[in-house]
């Protein structure tokens, strides 16, 4: 194993450093967040930092980059209070990745990359057609992270759409069977394979 110090990282170019640090935290979910402004201009952007915060109430968060780098999703969510999160299938990877490009404000990424907005459950923001797992969120709290000018966006679950064939009796979602992909670093995507599912861990009586 080779040792890399903070001083070593500081000497790398910013893309090498970003790739390295982004990969250290391991595989992450790859999801598309759909939002729209008050004039119903749609926005779609890929995120790989979706975080489960709790099941009761059902809270899910994501980290939004600094506003100067990624303003549209956060501003739309602040304006309307609603958004959807959509898993990415293998055949959507290229289109989903393209949403990370810095499109101008008001540009509809659905149209630009060739993905279909799909409205359901009377929710005001569309889901991504063909996404294997889709869920609707209501904004609850935005927490500024002063260390790097990012924002933790916390939402409450409103609706979920999942193929019942991918759901176990105990509520566990087999995302490999659903066809959801994972991400690593800034631009690598992986399909998933279940290695082992274990029972709830309890102390062993001796």
The CATH architecture assignment turns out to be Roll
Tell me the total number of β-strands.
12
Largest sheet descriptor: 7 strands, antiparallel
List the secondary-structure elements in sequence, H or E. Answer: HHEEEEEHEHHEEEEHEE
* Structural Rg: 18 Å
Fold-level CATH name? Pnp Oxidase, Chain A
Q: What's the total helix number?
A: 6
Helix and strand composition category: alpha+beta
How far the N terminus sits from the C terminus, by CA atoms, comes to 39 Å
**The CATH H-level homologous superfamily:** Electron Transport, Fmn-binding Protein, Chain A
**CATH first level: which class?**
Mainly Beta
Low-confidence stretches: none
Beta strand %: 25-35%
Number of domains: 1
- Range of helix content: 10-25%
Q: Summarize model confidence as the mean pLDDT.
A: 95
Protein name: Flavin reductase
Cofactor: FMN
Family: Belongs to the flavoredoxin family.
Keywords: Flavoprotein, FMN
Question: How would you summarize what this structure contains?
Answer:
The chain is an alpha+beta fold and 206 residues long. It contains six helices and twelve strands. It has a single domain, classed as Electron Transport, Fmn-binding Protein, Chain A (Pnp Oxidase, Chain A, Roll), CATH 2.30.110.10.
């Amino acid at each position: 194993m080779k040792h890399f110090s903070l001083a070593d990282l500081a000497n790398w170019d910013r893309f090498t450093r970003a790739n390295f640090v982004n990969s250290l935290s391991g595989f992450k979910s790859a999801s598309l967040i759909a939002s729209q402004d008050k004039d119903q201009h749609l926005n779609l952007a890929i995120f790989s930092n979706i975080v489960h915060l709790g099941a009761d109430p059902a809270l899910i968060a994501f980290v939004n980059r600094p506003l100067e780098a990624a303003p549209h999703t956060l501003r739309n969510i602040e304006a309307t209070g609603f958004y959807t999160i959509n898993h990415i299938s293998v055949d959507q990877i290229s289109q989903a990745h393209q949403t990370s490009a810095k499109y101008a404000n008001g540009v509809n990424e659905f149209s630009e990359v060739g993905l279909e907005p799909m409205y359901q459950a009377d929710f005001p923001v569309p889901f991504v057609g063909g996404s294997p797992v889709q869920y609707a969120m209501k904004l609850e709290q935005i927490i500024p992270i002063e260390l790097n000018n990012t924002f933790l966006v916390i939402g409450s679950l409103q609706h979920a759409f999942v193929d019942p064939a991918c759901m176990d009796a105990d509520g566990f979602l087999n995302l490999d069977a659903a066809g959801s992909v994972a991400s690593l670093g800034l631009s690598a995507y992986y399909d998933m394979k279940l290695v082992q599912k274990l029972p709830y861990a309890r102390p062993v009586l001796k």
